[in-house]
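User: I'm preparing a small set of examples for a lab meeting where we compare how different chains pack in three dimensions. I only have the primary sequence for this one, and I'd like the structure in token form so I can line it up with the others. Please keep the answer compact; I'll paste it straight into my notes.
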Amino acid sequence: MAKYHRIKYTEARVFERLPTASYGILSLIDAQGRPYGVPLNYVYVADRQALYFHAAKSGRKIDAIRAHNRAHFTVVLNESVMPEFFVTNYDALMLEGRVQVVEDEDERLMAITALCDQLAAGEARRDEVIAGSLPRTAIVRFDIQSVSGKANRDR
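Assistant: Understood. Below is the structure token output for the 155-residue chain.
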């Protein structure tokens, strides 16, 4: 028989865990009013209480962001299926907020540099890659308005 053990995270715990991951699901409403979820890398910038993503400058994601700026973001950490007990243990962070395409060049550079530092730390070509890719890359900011989190430790 499984033991049920659920943990509800405080807001502080969610913000503590957020920088420990780099991947989540951004959920939007697209320009046609349909739900749209897209997996992507992110970086959390604590002093702005925001997530940043990079994207192509055009496409369904950018169209959705421009049409409806409210969004949801989910991060799942430490997922572990335990088939013998029919349970999955995990940590889940859920964020609600507003998204926008960043136009300010200093903020765009800060965000893509933070993404590269997180995802490709120590790579010698970082500055060269940033200089070559930033002009053709959209930077999206997710301003966090509310958070919740939970963990499942059923066995």
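A couple of notes for your slides: The chain has a mean pLDDT of 90. Strands lie at 6-8, 23-29, 35-41, 43-45, 50-56, 70-82, 87-101, 137-152.

User: Perfect, thanks.
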